[in-house]
Design a protein that fits this description.
The chain has 128 residues and is α+β, with helices and mostly antiparallel strands. It has 2 domains: 65 residues, Ribosomal Protein S8, Chain: A, domain 1, CATH 3.30.1370; 55 residues, 2-Layer Sandwich (Dna Ligase, domain 1), CATH 3.30.1490.10. The protein is built from 3 helices and 10 strands, in the order H-E-H-E-E-E-E-E-E-E-E-H-E. The strands form 3 sheets. Strands 6, 7, 8, 9 and 10 form a 5-stranded antiparallel β-sheet that branches. Strands 1-3-2 form a 3-stranded antiparallel β-sheet, with helices on one face. The longest helix is centred in the first third of the chain and has 14 residues. The radius of gyration is 14 Å and the shape is globular.
Amino acid sequence: MTDPIADMLARIRNASCARRPNVEMPHSKIKESIARIMKREGYLQDCTVEGKAVKKLTIKLKYQGRKGVIEGMRRLSKSGLRLYVGATDIPRVLAGMGTVIVSTSRGVMTGTEARKQNLGGEVLCSVW
């Protein structure tokens, strides 16, 4: 697998389109951080880590009636072209209606949190 974050976003998108209640994927710290941010922002219902030797990240998706809460996701910084920005250049998604997830020197956080702390970093993805 070349890009584990893009794989994670694709799994979530596909499960949401198929109206699956949850989705499992191999665990990594950055995937767990992204999932916890998405849960905190209200895009996911829950995320848990299962297993001892081989860990799996289980994400419980959130729905409003028959429609998924997540309308779209995009991987911004790709393996072939990394996207690093300063605190003032962090993009806004749908005029603030979406969320940008940024990897900074102080950990993975939303674009708003990074702007408030005056931190730049790698723009991982956007969710709306």
